[in-house]
Request: fold
Amino acid sequence: MMEILNRGEGEAGNACISHGRLLIVDDEIDTLRPLCEILEEWGYQVLHATSGKNALEILETEEVDLLVTDLSMPEMNGIELLRTACERDRDLVCIIITAYGTIQRAVDAMSAGAFDFVLKPFDFKMLRSKISRAVEMRKLRDSEAIYRSIVENFQSELICRFLPDGTLNFVNQAFSRSLAKRKQDIVGSTYLSFLCEEDRDRIIGVIASLDPDNPVVRLEYRVKAPFGEIRWQRWTFTAILDGNNQVAVIQAIGSDIHDLKIAEEQLTKKENELRKKMKDLEDFYQTAVSRELRMKELKEEIKELQRELERQKNK
Reply:
């Protein structure tokens, strides 16, 4: 059995979408129905199921922000439902409903991955607070999942974070692959250790210059790749500030531009070679023209001498 409870109209009806989507599971209809109704009044979109099996069927086709399940149910109890649901969606957030006599089992549910538990009969003020925090946790997990996906799967970009002294506290897969090292062998080391000596002082100076007025800097420099190879990379450094407006950590996003740099160098070399050839040709031409002019001058001088000799003979 599945039903979406969304009776709110006007402001309440709009709020249910933004507050979150819940799946409530309880085999006792007398508990399930009023609980769903009050959650809907609080602005949530509510689905409900009367068994763990039914809940899993719903989760196959519906996305929810929070699973709220009774602990004691026939066939599949709340802990079993929690474990199975979280195997399918590791970021799923779950709250367990339990009676006073089964608090220890609720603690066991927390150990199994539940976000929190609530007791019957409900303290609705506490229930509302716990559900609100649980939904926010789901949103946070979703945001982190998106961030992980971008950071880990955006393979062309090298991403790292380090403290102002250069100590690395995060690198992504692309960064670790570029050094042929494991993440755990890189985190804790200094960012500066991967730089070439010729560029190190310049980069230290740039990093030290980051402040609230100058939070972003872009650089191109050489790094030491595995097996002693030197490669060119292009990096953007962004200062992340703390509550006192001081640089707390520096996030850097880079890309390997070695092939591009080599191509540019080769192009520059060819351009220089062509310029030299052009200069040599111009010099040769100028020399040839100068020689041609000089030859003409010599011919004129010779002719003038011949004419002078003829005049002397005729005297």
